[in-house]
Amino acid sequence: MLEDLIKQIVEQAVIQTLEKIGATDINRNDLPQIMNVKQVSEYLNVSTSYIYQNKDIPCNRIGKKLTFSKNDVDAWLEAKKEDKLPINKTVVKANKNKIYKIG
User: Fold this and answer.
1) CB burial class (10 A; 0-12, 13-18, 19+) of residue 46?
2) Which of 17, 38, 40, 54 can pair with 68 through a Cys bridge, CB separation 3.0 to 4.6 Å?
3) Maximum Cα–Cα distance across the chain
4) What pLDDT score does 88 carry?
C-alpha cells in the first residue's frame, strides 16, 4: 500500500518535471515498424547527423533513403548494452602499424 503510494508520487513528479523541460513522449509501441532517419533519431534521442555518421546502426537503403526496422534497432540497442566493457578490461586500439594498449 505505502509502496504503491510512493511509486505513484514519484511517477507524477517525473511526469511534471519532463513536462516542465519540454521533453517529448515517444511511446515505443506507437512507432511504425519501419522508421526513417528522423523517426529513428527521435526514438534514440540523438541527432539525425549522428544516425548518418554511425554506420553500425542496422538499416536498409532504398535508393538514397535509409530505413530502419524497429525490431533491428531494438536488437542493436540490446547488443550495445551487452558490449559495454567493464572498467577493468583492457582495450587495444590499432592505428595504422601501431598498437596501443589502454588500461
Assistant:
1) middle
2) 40
3) 64
4) 45
- The pLDDT score that the predictor gives to residue 53 is 92
What is the per-residue pLDDT for 87?
Answer: 46
Is 57 in contact with 69 (CB distance < 8 Å)? no
Amino acid type, 11: E
Residue with cell 513522449: 25
Segments making up each domain of the chain, as ranges:
25-102
Grid look-up 536498409 returns 60
| Closest to 26 measured CA to CA, from 69, 88, 65, 70 | 70
Q: What is the pLDDT of residues 47-95, one digit of tens each?
A: 999 999 988 899 999 898 999 999 999 999 888 887 764 444 445 555 5
Place of cell 516542465: 20
Q: What is the model's pTM? A: 0.53
Neighbours of 73 (CB within 10 A): 19
